[in-house]
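Budget justification aside, the reviewers requested a transparent look at the raw inputs and outputs of the sequence design task funded under Objective 1. We therefore reproduce one unedited record. The lines immediately below are the structure tokens for a 160-residue chain.
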């Protein structure tokens, strides 16, 4: 992955890179300004193909189902993607939001994945706080009902 890929993507789509606004284990996120327009979108560039494809496919599912929110949580809307450059272009969202699906799986988890057992629930309740955990868990369950198994449940990905 390189910033060069974002530059190539921006040039191809007449966009201007504003700044890097985020990063994680799977990639980096950049704000993009549309030339001649007042709105900003984001481009997420990935290090590896597998997380890119997982996240892209989750957004395909959202698009197919017309999903823009999970409960009161906004989800980004996929605008464009580039399989060669491993880039997703999406709308921006404000809190509360649910995003970053690079660690999500569609329909079933790999066999090696640990269970979401009582210890997992206690850990997540500690992360989110006992008041917020029930609402976050409802989001996780709603995603599951859509066949989206979010394995990276964290306050940065499901934010109140």
């Amino acid at each position: 992955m390189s910033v060069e890929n974002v530059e190539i993507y921006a040039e191809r789509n007449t966009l201007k890179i504003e700044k890097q606004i985020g990063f994680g284990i799977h990639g980096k996120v950049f704000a993009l300004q549309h030339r001649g327009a007042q709105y900003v979108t984001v481009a997420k560039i990935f290090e590896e193909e597998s997380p890119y494809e997982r996240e892209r496919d989750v957004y395909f599912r959202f698009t197919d189902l017309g999903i823009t929110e999970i409960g009161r949580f906004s989800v980004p809307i996929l605008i464009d993607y580039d399989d060669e450059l491993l880039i997703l272009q999406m709308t921006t969202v404000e809190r509360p939001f649910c995003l970053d699906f690079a660690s999500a799986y569609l329909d079933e988890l790999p066999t090696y994945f640990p269970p979401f057992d009582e210890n997992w629930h206690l850990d997540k309740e500690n992360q989110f706080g006992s008041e917020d955990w029930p609402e976050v868990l409802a989001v996780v369950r709603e995603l599951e009902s859509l066949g989206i198994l979010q394995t990276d449940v964290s306050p940065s990905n499901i934010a109140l």
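The first strand starts at residue 15 and ends at 23. The longest helix spans residues 49-65. Computational costs for records of this kind are itemized in the attached budget.
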